[in-house]
Design brief:
Elements (H helix, E strand, L loop, with lengths): L3 E6 L2 E9 L9 H12 L2 E8 L5 H12 L10 E7 L6 H6 L4 E4 L9 H8 L5 E6 L7 H6 L3 E5 L12 H20 L5
Parallel strand pairs: 2-3, 2-4, 4-5, 5-6, 6-7
Antiparallel strand pairs: 1-3
Helix pairs in contact: 1-6
Protein name: Alpha/beta hydrolase
C-alpha cells in the first residue's frame, strides 16, 4: 500500500469532494490548489490525498479503494464528488462503480497499465468531466468525445495542462479548467 495522508477541510458535510493528485502533480500544483480553494469557497468539505512516498499503479489503486471505500468514505447521505489528476484517475473505475461523479484531469487514457480507465472513460455519462490536452500522450480526444461526459480539450496543452513557454495562455487555461470544475460541482445542487 502506498503511504499517504488524507487532509480534511471541514465545511458542509452534505457536499464532499475528494481530491486525488498525480504522483508528480501534487495537490499544491496550480490546477488542484485552485480547484480546492474554489470548492472550499463554495462551502464544500474538501478531502485531499497527499502522497508521503511515491506510489506505484497498484499501490495507488489500493489507496484509492481505501479512501473512496467504506472505511474513509463520507456519509452515505452526502453528495460525494471526486476530482482526480493523472495517476489519481486510476480511481475512475471504482468511482463509477460507487456512483460517484468525477472531474478527471489528464486521465491516463492511453496507458497500457490502465486499460480499465480507458474502458470506463469511454462509457462515462453526464455526471463526469474529462479534461485533457492535445499534446498530452496520455490523452485520447476521440475516446473522450465519444463518451457522454462533458469534455474540455485544451489545444497544444501537455500533461500538466500547460502550453510550453506561454504564461498568459497557461493562466487562461488554469482559469478555464477551475471555472469548469466549479460549474460542474455546482450542477449537483448547491444549497
Amino acid at each position: 500500500m502506498a503511504a499517504y495522508d488524507l487532509h480534511v477541510h471541514e465545511a458542509d458535510p452534505a457536499r464532499v469532494v475528494t481530491v486525488l493528485p498525480g504522483s508528480g502533480y501534487t495537490a499544491v500544483a496550480p490546477l488542484l490548489w485552485y480547484t480546492r480553494a474554489a470548492l472550499r469557497d463554495l462551502g464544500w468539505t474538501v478531502r485531499t490525498l497527499e502522497w508521503t512516498a511515491p506510489p506505484s499503479f497498484s499501490s495507488a489503486r489500493a489507496a484509492y479503494a481505501e479512501v473512496l471505500g467504506e472505511d474513509d468514505a463520507p456519509d452515505d447521505d452526502a453528495l460525494h464528488l471526486v476530482v482526480a489528476k493523472s495517476l489519481g484517475t486510476l480511481a475512475m473505475p471504482l468511482a463509477v462503480r460507487l456512483g460517484l461523479p468525477g472531474a478527471w484531469l489528464t486521465p491516463v487514457l492511453t496507458s497500457e497499465q490502465a486499460p480499465d480507465v480507458r474502458e470506463t472513460a469511454a462509457e462515462l455519462d453526464e455526471n463526469h468531466l474529462l479534461v485533457g490536452g492535445t499534446a498530452d500522450p496520455l490523452w485520447d480526444g476521440d475516446l473522450a468525445d465519444g463518451s457522454e461526459a462533458d469534455v474540455i480539450e485544451v489545444e497544444n496543452a501537455d500533461h500538466s495542462l500547460e502550453v510550453p513557454d506561454d504564461r498568459t495562455e497557461n493562466l487562461a487555461i488554469l482559469d478555464e479548467v477551475v471555472s469548469a470544475i466549479e460549474e460542474f460541482a455546482q450542477s449537483f445542487g448547491e444549497e
